[in-house]
Structures are given as C-alpha cells and as structure tokens.
Design goal:
The chain is of the alpha+beta class. Helices cover 22% and strands 41% of the residues. It contains three helices and seven strands, in the order E-H-H-E-E-E-E-E-H-E. InterPro entries: 4-hydroxybenzoyl-CoA_TE, HotDog_dom_sf.
Length: 145
C-alpha cells in the first residue's frame, strides 16, 4: 500500500467567502483521516483511553497549491514521512489531490504519544502504537529518525 486514500466530500460550511474551501477545513479533514486510519489499524479511541495515551501534535502546517471548490472530486492520501524506530516521534503527511492527480495541498503534522495520566510524553511507546505505525504506509522520501 502506497498510502491510505479516501475520497472526501466538501460541505457548504467548508467554504469561505470566496467560495473555495476554507483553510481550516483542510486541517479538519486531515485530523479525521488520521483517526480513521488509526481505528483501522486497531488503535481505537477506546484502546487509547483504556491504556491512557493518545497522539499529541507539535506542528501542523499546510501548503496550499491549488484552489479547491465545492464541486471538486478530491482524494486525501495519507502516509508517514518520518518516524523513530520505536514510533515515539513521527511525521504524517496528507496530500489533497484532484481526480486527475493534481496536488492541491499538503498537510504535515509532527507528533508523538502522550501519557494522558502523567500529562507528559509516553515512555516507553505503547506496543499497540508501535504496531500500528509500523504498518502505516511510508512516503517515497521516508526518513527514519
């Protein structure tokens, strides 16, 4: 698998006054896709709650390349671009592509796992997180940290 791919549908509320997709909607779609992927890999919200850990982001950045409009058929492609061997730190990229594969935007998030009881980075990384991220598709330019 090269990446997780999902077709996304825009809603009227995703538009800005210029009638194209508002900047913050991209981040919402990226966050939703990450959680859906983790769920598919067995790393459910219930598992994270039971084991008292969850993802924490240090950086979230979007580069906008092409305008997206309500009627566009868009696919979000998600993969890891960087990761430590123990999956304690990672970067995930989301590419927003039109039906003809035109790249419209790229979100990059840098994150780690947080112990929700201690309110600090989880150490060691929970085994289920290691397992999930080890099978997460990697970008062509993937870098091991």
């Amino acid at each position: 698998m090269v990446s997780f791919i999902k077709e996304i549908s825009f809603r009227w509320s995703d538009l800005d006054p210029n009638f194209h997709v508002r900047h913050s909607a991209y981040y919402d779609f990226g966050a939703q896709h990450r959680i859906e992927i983790l769920e598919q890999l067995g790393l459910t919200l219930r598992v994270m709650q039971t084991q008292s850990f969850g993802p924490v982001l240090f950086r979230e950045e979007c580069v906008f390349r092409k305008e997206l409009k309500l009627s566009d058929k868009i696919f979000i492609h998600t993969k890891t671009s960087k990761m430590k061997a123990d999956a304690s730190r990672w970067s995930i990229i989301h590419e927003f592509r039109k039906e003809d594969d035109t790249l419209c935007a790229v979100i990059t998030v840098d994150g780690a796992w947080m112990d929700t009881k201690l309110r600090k980075l989880a150490s060691p990384t929970p085994e289920i997180a290691i397992q999930a991220l080890s099978i997460f598709p990697k970008s062509d330019d993937f870098v091991g940290l």
